[in-house]
Amino acid sequence: MKRAADKGLLTVNLIDLRQFGLGPHKQVDDYQYGGGAGMVMMCEPLDNCILQLKVLKTYDQVIYLTPDGNTFDQKMANRLSLGTNLLMICGHYKGIDQRVRDMHVTMEISIGDFVLSGGELAAAVVVDAIGRLIPGVLNDETSALTDSFQDDLLAPPVYTRPADYKGYKVPEVLLSGHDARIDQWRFEESLATTRKKRPDLLDRHS
Ligand code: ADE
Question: How far apart are alpha carbons 130 and 111 in whole angstroms?
Fold first, then answer.
């Protein structure tokens, strides 16, 4: 991400919601209606913050990071990497007032079936996955195309020198210099690895 930022290909602007907080204590959260443990992030600070940001930029998506969102995957990363500006809302405590979701949020993303203490780490995960897809961010621009999940397949095994390490040998085909055979081998390995570790990925096509 640092390389992306240094090259001017990606900028992350962090907004401290506290500056939109209400009253002398800059309040941003309150007890939830109906009772129950945990605070809820209030409408007004978030609404004001989002409205102000929207004056300055047009956003492709307003994303709320939440465990009840759609599970993040490579397809979402690919799609989001084509956008220009994304606004990400990181919830805390019990989450944000539902009305902010109704008014502003266009996409809800979970990074997995577990609960983090805030959305920041989830946002960082999403930014990292998206950022590396921006052309010019990776050194070898083609390498994102051969990542795991790009074809709903896991990546094949990879090897580097030496060709023989303590008797563990690199598969002969990779030393052959025969591109078509290497491509074929990699595809077959991808398929075998996926069948073994993540058969659910293959089921998506049947
Ligand atoms: N906020 C808290 N838990 C989260 C999760 N699993 N994914 C996205 N945002 C979250």
Answer: 13
